Amino acid sequence: MNRRTRAGLALLAALFLLAFAGPLASPWSWDATDFTAFRRPPSAAHWFGTTQSGRDVFALTLHGMRKSLVIGLLVAVLSTGLAAAVGTVAGLLGGWADRALMWGVDLLLVLPSFLVVAVLAPVLPGGWPVLVVLLAAFMWMVTARMVRAATVSLREREYVLAARLLGAGTPRVIVRHIVPQLASLLAVDASLNVSVAILAESGLSYFGYGVRPPDVSLGTVIAGAAGSATAYPWLFAFAAGLLVLVVLAVNLIGDGLRDALDPAGRR
Amino acid sequence: MTPVLQVSGLHVDYAPDVRAVRGASFAVERGEVLGVVGESGSGKSALALAVLGLLPAGARVRGSVRLRGRELLGLPDAALSRVRGKDLAMVFQDPLSALTPVHQVGDQIAETIRVHAGATRRAARTRAVELLELVGVPDAARLARAYPHEFSGGMRQRVMIAMAIANDPLAIVADEPTTSLDATVQAQVLDVLRTAQQATGAAIVLITHDLGAVAGFADRVMVMYAGRAVETGPVGDVYRRPRMPYTIGLLGSLPRLDGAPVRALPADAAPAAEGCPFRTRCPVAVAACAVTEPAALPVAPSGQVAACLNLAATERPGAVYPVPEPVPAPDRPPRRARPPVLHVSGLVRHHPQYRGALYKRRVGAVHAVDGITLDVREGETLGLVGESGCGKTTALMEILRLAAPPGGRVSVLGRDTAALGRAGRKALRRDVQVVFQDPFASLDPRMRVAAILAEPLAIHRVPKDRTAARVRELLELVGLDAALAGRYPQQLSGGQRQRVGIARALALEPRLLLLDEPVAALDASVRAGVLALLRDLQNRLGVAYLFVSHDLAVVRSVADRVAVMYHGRIVEIGPAGAVYGTPAHPYTRALLGAVPVPDPGARQGRVTLPGGPPDPSAPPGGCRFRPRCPRHPGLDAGRARLCAELDPVLAEAGDDDHAAACHHLGAR
């Protein structure tokens, strides 16, 4: 593991700790209202200040980050998993199954995903888990193409041929022989997807199509402060700063993994 | 007279603890050919790269390389580039990657002339065509305009030789120049190299693992082991009276065309770190071998030197390695009484060819397998031989599919594969297994040996509690230590990996094993061990083999029957003794003649087959072998017409199931 991966992992661990353990250190809960403090700058009582309705920005931001992190991880796992499944099956089977699956991929690629999610997310019942599914559904296609290409070259390897000639079925070949070879590619892809998903979620939430009240995410926190960003910078600065740190940490991990696992980059 | 190329005390270290070459010294005179032989890891390639100044960055080299007295080691890159390609030329193993794909070959040859001799474009071009003629490229003026991919492997290697001699070099270093070529083409390329040498008078260093190629070509030979020259001398002396036990073992482990038993060199023991590196495999090692590394001592007035502390024991080379006890063949009913395990009749496999960028038209088909018929009976080995592109591997893969072939019939254990359902096919896979050529590619690098061997058991739902015992049993069966079960394939040697591959194939106790060039990627001494294992397994288990190989000597040592393939057809089939002893088809004869024999005396009287394997998409009418047939030009008009018009079928060519497809079986 190289230095960047280690730094990224440490940073991400610290952010998780902050998101889940941080609220315990504060006397304020994220949905409590302090009727004595409206729109106050950071102070000893309210570390990140308060909103115009008297909510504690520290508690609110950490609560939002918790959601953002969970959404990012879930979306990454789902989309990379889907990409691995579709890509390996298409690559291994070839023929009409390959053509049909890749046709589906191309179809999804040409759809304006942001618009589709923005239209569907508010009308579908189910809250943020639906958002996770929608985001994942539009993020796996490029990876699936990569996985398919890698599988096609692996399919010709003699040990894959040997397994097939022993009578191994497609699921077994995928799980035992293809996926282990793709593990590094998938790990890198999943980690980079985390940051893409978090950014996409924040963007959607900012416009009001993503996480909706009463749920809070980093995107909604930033959106809530949008009108008064210059006058009351604490309303959004902490949320935006944490968003940058999360994305930075995840990208560091992803880049580090790629460098560590890419044989060409190894000395 | 000073030697043209003199190497003395050459050391190459890749890392502090990886010492590839440890003090190599040799000298090559003008017009002399030195063969450097050794197995993988002997340091011969590092030696070649060091002489050429092409070692990777990281490698450290000491000693001296002098080209006509001029020291090359330590020369700056620019100065070395002026020497390389002019006075010191090279021929590599893989001519496809050594030629630039986007330039015409004539221009590439002309470029070397212009860079070093400063000739004009036109003069260089004319000279390039002359050189191509010299190395036997037909229609040189036209083919000088062709691109590398338009040439066959043998033709590309000729182009490389033309490029090497373009500037009248003093010395040529050829690193495995014939290794990837078919035997018939190999013989042609060595002939061309000899012509080229006579035309330029260059000294040649031929580096190879192929003792047969050296025997027919080199004047002197240097045998390397663990980075040192262990025996050097005139080729005749070294081959007839080798004195270093390693040389003796290496020569003894070559499979022979006459089917005589090989005396296997104990394989797969790592060279010793102290004392004589060979002592871990040496049958005549004495106590002193563990202490001192022997220096090369003269053993014959001819200048033959050998590095061995126990030279007394090698006075009679034949007695160093024990002749293996002939294994009594198990009592089996005669062939006719045994049931066929595999029956193939009229098998056809064509690969359609398409052309056109937007609208793909079918323009023809490659006749990879064009109607072959054979059967393999219980407990016997059928060897399927032929040059690359003859369709032997396609035939094997078609049989392995266990599905209805595009033409003809395949039946395994009496069951027609066309009639098999999904479950039936999976069940039949237990009985038909395969061993691949490349032991590095055929084992999953992310699985341990135990998991690799357990996989077939899991697929066919052998109860889990029996798996561990069966894995141990399989390892023992193929002569591997049970401790290897926990290793990954990359921690094993080539021979050990191939044994794992064989064990995996045997896990389900198949009745038929298809072997696709199973020893082609292995060193000579390792190869002998694997072949002995295969014979032993057949005797113990009664499994039948279909053994595909391009190497006739290897097939001779394992096969009971042999089928020779040419251009998608079987041209001769019969008992191994009959096919090798009294070959009926002219192609079989030519193939046998082209096998490099490790005997310097056999150099004369070899017939080399003209041309390469034919274009598989356009078989000539009539007999497919006619364009290359040595018998055809000598026929009278009437009989020659028969060859041109009628495709011969297999006909009885002697007793005992021996058949050949030639119209003129009686002719010599």
TrEMBL record, chain A:
Membrane topology label: Multi-pass membrane protein
Transmembrane segments: 69-93, 100-121, 127-147, 231-253
Primary location class: membrane
Range of residues in the leader sequence: 1-21
UniProt-listed Gene3D superfamilies: MetI-like
Taxonomic superkingdom: Bacteria
Subcellular locations according to the entry: Cell inner membrane; Cell membrane
CDD domains cross-referenced by the UniProt entry: TM_PBP2
Keywords, comma-separated and alphabetical: Cell inner membrane, Cell membrane, Membrane, Signal, Transmembrane, Transmembrane helix, Transport
Domain ABC transmembrane type-1: 69-254
Family from the record: Belongs to the binding-protein-dependent transport system permease family.
UniProt organism field: Actinomadura parmotrematis
One Pfam assignment: BPD_transp_1
This protein's name: ABC transporter permease
Keyword Cell inner membrane: yes
PANTHER family linked to this entry: OLIGOPEPTIDE TRANSPORT SYSTEM PERMEASE PROTEIN APPC, OLIGOPEPTIDE TRANSPORT SYSTEM PERMEASE PROTEIN OPPC
InterPro entries according to UniProt: BP-dependent_transpt_permease, MetI-like, MetI-like_sf
Automatic annotation (TrEMBL), chain B:
SUPFAM superfamilies membership: P-loop containing nucleoside triphosphate hydrolases
Protein known as: ABC transporter ATP-binding protein
Keyword tags: ATP-binding, Nucleotide-binding, Transport
Family: Belongs to the ABC transporter superfamily.
Domain ABC transporter: 5-251, 342-592
Chain positions covered by the region annotation Disordered: 602-627
Keyword ATP-binding: yes
Molecular functions per Gene Ontology: ATP binding
Superkingdom: Bacteria
Organism: Actinomadura parmotrematis
